[in-house]
Amino acid sequence: MNFFPMISPKSPSVLLGLLFVSCAVGPDFKRPNSDVPASWSFSKTKVAATPADPAELVRWWRRFHDAKLNSLVEQAIDANLDVKIASARLNQARAQRQGAAASFWPWLSASGSETESHVNGSGPGSGSFSSYRGSMSAAWELDFFGGNRRNLESATARQASVAADLDATRLSMAAEVALTYCQLRSIQDQIAVAHRNLLTQKRSSEITHERRGAGFASDLDVVNADALVANTQAQIPSLETAASKSSHAIAVLLGLPPTDLSAMLSAAGPVPTASAAVPTGIPSDLLRRRPDVRSAEAAAHAATANIGVAVADLFPKFSLNGSVSQQSAKLSDWLSPSARASSFGPSFNWALFQGGSIQANIHMQQALRDQSVLAYRKTVLTALQEVEDAMVAQSNEYKRRASLAEAVTANRRAVELSTKLYTAGQTDFLNVLNAQRSLLQSESEQTLSNLQLATNLISLYKALGGGW
Questions:
Q1: Between residues 197 and 121, which one has the greater pLDDT?
Q2: Whole-angstrom distance, CA of residue 440 vs CA of residue 447
Q3: Largest CA distance in the chain
Q4: 349 lies in a domain?
Q5: CA gap 348, 331 in Å, rounded
Q6: Which domain holds residue 85?
Q7: Helix orientation angle between 81-101 and 67-79, rounded to the nearest 10 degrees
Q8: What is the pTM of this model?
């Protein structure tokens, strides 16, 4: 039975026409539907919002106005080993796409040989013989049903997905460096708080010793004062260890030995702060701005194209084939027309029965496409949640920090008043002790709140996708 008309090798224009008018089998990709709200829930938060500006988001860490932070983040984006690994994966994906594109070009090969044979005996066929042979062959697969085009489409989408993964790695690295740097500054601030309170507590301890010598204070007052000093001193070594670990972590993030940045980061500095006005834009901006969302969309695109690659295996594959060969017994006769042989013509290959493996592969690719679509929708929902969580956390932390500032002011006043009253013999040492403990706790919590504000803001910029 003749399923396809014969095509004359003398009419290549017919083949080219069929090649370019043919359609690609399999479904065309469309961005999966996802439930994205029209706006953020700003009515429930007090985080200031402004329209999204990619230029501001590209270098979001510069909004903290810290020169060292800027330098560290920008070094990490290029020098971090995870970024370099992701960049190498992108080079791999580009090479794979080039390999997929190569299927549209003819294949050309050449071979040659010189053979010497020896037949023993004295008959007419005996003696030594030489032969020279050279050949060149070409083949061109005609992509009538679009299997190669779908394969190139899939490879292009995979390259886009890997490129987005590189952007996601850079974004994560920038956020990780910024978070670790802020943690280091917070720890240094906590060390300063501990030293400052330690001086106050030591002065109180000296007063209790003097008052006991004069018969106005008990041994219990002295012991309590000394215990508070010792407890505060005990906090400092642990904080110094944490500071060193943060410095080491930053160096490793920059691809450096752990102690290379110790000298540069040893000088204490404040926790970086930035304006509360964040260029959030609208939720739908995340679909094109967040690298993980773009990667998930491209992965779904690649999976959809792979269905077409699998469906194309149901149809015959047509090729144009040609070859030219030269063979002679003498090297001087090798180029003579009589030594030449050539062939040219179309051919096809059709897998008529493979036990259902082609259909099984189609079903598998459809299932992989469904998984990638669901993964895309999950990624979008996670992105929306991260932005909303960061905005709520930031709004509430501003409120918390305002209350802590009032508590610090009140506790400082309490320490001052209780110390004066105790020195004048108008109150017992327990009030001084409680006031000093409360001051240390409130100042430490205020420092941690400053860190939390920076952490929440970094998380919000990361959730928004940065500027990549």
A1: 197
A2: 11
A3: 138
A4: no
A5: 37
A6: 12-109+142-317+356-463
A7: 40
A8: 0.82
